[in-house]
Structures are given as structure tokens and as C-alpha cells.
Amino acid sequence: MPWRWMKLRDAKVLARCDDAGELRVDKGRVEIRYSANDGKAYQASKGNLKASGDPTIFEDEFCAAAKKVGPPKTKSKSKSAKASGPTPNKPSADEVLVYCDGACSGNPGPAGLGVVMLWDDHRKELSEFLGHGTNNIAELTAILRAVEGAPPGRRIELYTDSTYSIGVLTKGWKAKANKTLITDIRNALKVHGKVALHHVKGHAGVELNEVADGLAVAAVEARATAGWNEVA
Q1: How far is the C-alpha of 80 from the C-alpha of 82, rounded, in Å?
Q2: How many other C-beta atoms are found inside a 10 Å radius of the C-beta of residue 160?
Q3: CA distance 167 to 180
Q4: 153 pLDDT exceeds 60?
Q5: SS3 state of residue 62
Q6: What is the C-alpha to C-alpha distance for residues 176 and 194, in angstroms, rounded to an integer?
Q7: The whole model's pTM is what?
């Protein structure tokens, strides 16, 4: 399948398209590449991709053959661990892998969240509209939904690009707002008992983080909640 240049946030990316230049969408997402030569394939929500102004269509061979982005070589056991190096896109045995994100139009404004959750051969996604709120509320609520919705008894490895959430939940930052929500999350973490929170850089081509972002943005754009859905 061919490729064309598109914009994803502030980045220019190559996106899969047909011979006429229409994006090729699979379950709401489009395969993208940040570089034609590195061979790392990611997925982005169609709604996040904007025209770049360059109508050129490239043959399939323009991009190197796809290869998977591997998991990290080591994994910290600390609850306040910070992700570094490659980020995982598959869960380890007896683990739940989660990516959370929030979105807000206006901040404050219409807010939504997205969660991607994987364990064994299961994959669930949540796209939820929160109404009027802030980006921090959306980011925190995404974490709460993930912890509450995860299978019990399994360790959760949860990734978020929210520095604020990591700070108030694991680094002792003093919260001036959202105190009730933060308390609810801390209680949920205690109830589950096996949760490691990690920070991941946002809009940096991390596959599942981009998916979570797309789910959050879709909720804001549609002003609607899709709920938890099993993805094949």
C-alpha cells in the first residue's frame, strides 16, 4: 500500500493510503512511520492526522519493512519507576499492560480520556467523554478507570505521559486541586495492591500511547463515550 505525508500534532509522518491518497483505516487507526528508513511502525487515530500540504504519494517500498518495537530489557519494580528506552507493547505473563491518556479542548473545556489495556490474549480499549473539565482531570481519571477496570490479582504496569499525575501520585507533589479525585486514585491503588506507574514521553511515536491519545481525542470530538470494548 502507498504512503503520503501527513501531520500528527507537530510531527510530519508518513501514513498508509490508497492509490488516490485516501488514508487506509483499520479499526479507526492508520499505520504511520516517523521515518522512511527506521522501519518502526506505529498506529495513529485517523482524527489526529491532518493534511500536510504535500500531495505526493509514494510506493510501498518507499518505507523500510516494518519491525516491532521491542519491550524494555529491564523493568523496575518501583511504584514510582520512570520509563526509559523502548516501551513495551505486549504484557509479560501474569501482568496487565496499560496506557492511559487524557485530552481537553480549551483546558478547561470538553474533556475525554482513553485507555488501552492488555493481558494474556485480551485487549480492551476505553474512550470516555467527561464533559467540562481540565486536562489534569482527564489524565487522572484515565488512571482511575484503568486501575478499577483491570483484572484483579495481576500486577499492573501503567504508562502515562502526564508528569502531573506521576508527581501527585508517586512523588509527593502537593495537590492544590483535584484532591478528591487523587484520594480516589490512591484508594484504588491500595485496593488493587500491585500497580507500577511509569512516565512515557507523549507524542513521541510510542504506539500504545498514541492509541490511548486517539481514544481520548475521539471522545472529545464526538462528545460521546464508547465504553470498554474488546479489540480482536
Answers
A1: 6
A2: 27
A3: 16
A4: yes
A5: helix
A6: 27
A7: 0.67
